[in-house]
Design goal:
It is a single chain. Helix content is 33%, strand content 37%. With 163 residues, it is α+β, with helices and mostly antiparallel strands. It has one domain: Bacterial Protein-export protein SecB. The chain has a four-stranded antiparallel beta sheet. The longest helix has 30 residues. It is globular, with a radius of gyration of 21 Å. The termini are far apart.
Length: 163
């Protein structure tokens, strides 16, 4: 019986990433200044935040990734609306090392969830009686790199404090 041969040099085992389920986990919308906000001239100031949560679901490589988008829009000093969308996905990820897994969870998965989150956010804002909110594309690679750089800086600062 022939044995399986390892991959030829230059070939690596490739990671397997498979979305199992994409769903809306949580949704929130508030209009604290209504109905007077609708009588003001619409010159909004948008504050937008993005976050992410990752939960290991099983030892078989199943992970839940939740992309959190928060939009706070003000007109002058009055808050027009606060909208938050938690777009989630369950992903099977196998054949990776820790660094590659972290990158897939921090870049690939949020990139896949973002269009769904944007659509939910736009629909939510429109149903709240406000003009459609169209969010620009995001560079999740840059966001991931910023997070890594921030973690390295925090570790260096803590090490300097303890010395």
């Amino acid at each position: 019986m022939a044995e399986e041969q390892p991959a030829a040099s230059g070939e690596e085992n490739k990671a397997t990433v498979r979305p199992e389920k994409i769903y809306l986990k949580d949704l929130s919308f508030e209009t604290p200044s209504s109905p007077t906000i609708f009588t003001l001239e619409w010159q909004p100031q948008l504050d937008f935040d993005i976050g992410q949560k990752v939960t290991k679901v099983s030892d078989e490589g199943l992970y839940e990734v939740v992309l959190v988008l928060t939009a706070t829009t003000k007109v002058g000093e009055q808050t027009a609306y606060l909208a938050e969308v938690h777009q989630a996905g369950i992903f099977t990820i196998q054949g990776t090392d820790e660094q590659q897994l972290d990158r897939l969870l921090g870049v690939f998965c949020p990139r896949m969830l973002y269009p769904y989150a944007c659509a939910a956010m736009s629909d939510l804002v429109s149903k709240g009686g406000f003009p459609q909110l169209l969010l620009a594309p995001l560079n999740f690679e840059a966001i991931y790199k910023q997070r890594l750089d921030g973690a390295q800086q925090n570790a260096a600062a803590q090490e300097a404090e303890s010395s």
